[in-house]
Amino acid sequence: MDKTINSITYNPYLPKLLLFGDSITQRAYSYAEGKTFVFGAAFSDDYLRRLNVVHRGFSGYNSEQGRYILPGIIEAETSGNHSIALATVFFGSNDAVIPSNSQYVSPERFEENVRFITKALLDAGSRVILVGPAPHDEVHRNQLFPGDPADNPRSTLRNRQYGDIVGKVAAELNVGFVDLWHAFLENVGWKEGDPIPGRLKDTPPEDRDKPSRIAHLLCDGLHFTGDGYRIWYNSVVNVIKEQYPELEPRKLPFLYPEWQAATVEDLQKNVQKD
């Protein structure tokens, strides 16, 4: 698969970075809500001419739906000489709703699904980074939808529970893990045992009409602002450095050599049949 020009090796079939998940992944390239940082664009820029970033986010999907569409995605993205070098997998925010909600997936089944998805990607030759749900800003959600807080199908503590499941599977299968629940809260100075920012029960009644300490990270209590995406981005970059250093951008070859090393004569001789 690799080719050589003037002793410079390159791969004409760029491997891929697959972003797979729900609406938070779907919005990874969005400039909506005044985003000042765009997750998908940042990775596309990091991996220019090194990896093709493939964007496969599906709004509203849970892990149960994800496990059934993934085989087709893998088949499409690995056909011929193509391959997936790295995949991020981010489900759980929808799975963790209350059981009466149609998006709900039980913790036991969620664990099975995350394990299935991870093994399918590993079997396809990809490295994997699993991502656990961020905290849910119950205060903001209650401001957007005033009424009985019990009507909120989401909970920051359930998000933490499902994130812990993701971390368990990541450790079991020795793949990367991004713990967004802790990353978001630690970004605002939270420590274990403190009241949880954004949790309604931890917010005094007189403060429930004010922005929570994590409001700048979540545009509607669930989806990320640019600042929230930046935390996710930095977390993924750190996992790559620590667990998959061979996939750091600077260590991957360009698609075709730099222009100085690729004369027209070299290209005519070596590239015409790519």
From TrEMBL:
**SGNH hydrolase-type esterase domain span:** 19-231
Note the InterPro entries from the entry: Iah1-like, SGNH_hydro, SGNH_hydro_sf
- This chain's protein is named SGNH hydrolase-type esterase domain-containing protein
